[in-house]
Write a structure and sequence with these properties.
Strand content: 15-25%
Number of domains: 2
Radius of gyration: 17 Å
Bound molecules: adenosine-5'-diphosphate, magnesium ion
Largest sheet: 5 strands, antiparallel
Order of helices and strands: EEEHEEHHEEEEHHHHH
Shape: globular
CATH class of the largest domain: Alpha Beta
Helix content: 40-55%
Amino acid sequence: MTASTPFASGRDADVYALDGGRVLRRYRDGTDVTEEARFMSHLHAAGFPVPRVHRADGADLVMQRVPGPTMLQALVSGTIEVVPAADILAGLHRRLHAVAPLPGAHGGERILHMDVHPDNVLLDPDGAVLVDWRNVRHGPPGLDVAMTALILAQVAVDPDQPMAAAADEMQRAYRYALCDHAAPLVADAVAIRRANPTQTPTELALLDQAAALLTS
Ligand SMILES: Nc1ncnc2c1ncn2[C@@H]1O[C@H](COP(=O)(O)OP(=O)(O)O)[C@@H](O)[C@H]1O
Ligand SMILES: [Mg+2]
């Protein structure tokens, strides 16, 4: 498939507009999307807000294009406030962890996204949609909760981040919104984050400080 200029790029993938209200998401490192697409199709069928998958082939995923800004863009432009945004993240996690897992999940395990943060949420006028399912897996819901809190805390403790104060407010509001859900498995999330090759040296250096914020 030929593709021109991406309309969006993240740490792992480039996203190209296609006709017919679709996008092509292509992993730059060639990662196979079969597993991710299988989970996405299951979630879509269960009514969870995830783009409909049209085709999965090697590193290419063709899916429904979601209109609307990312939650991060909306926070920067001021069209959404921090606490309502945190409540959306928490609500997505509650809904996700209520979906029946696929065959093969062990007792108590649920579907985890493992990278829920404001740049992976699209604010469709019909409701928030969760994208970027690269890290999807079965596991304990508290791991998913801890990962989001940790990602926000990493921004909160970084003095070079203009959104540090907002991220701190957000991680607190997010954890409060889920205080009756699943206890965050912070140590496990830190270990996974530490092994993530997309983390920069600065991010890794601040990881323990970020984790400490979650137990304060
Ligand atoms: N289905 C989609 N519709 C519209 N925009 C999308 C869609 N999927 C991804 N994007 C945009 O592309 C960006 C990068 O995609 P993402 O899946 O998050 O890749 P990465 O792993 O590189 O972060 C997202 O932050 C979002 O702005
Ligand atoms: Mg992303």
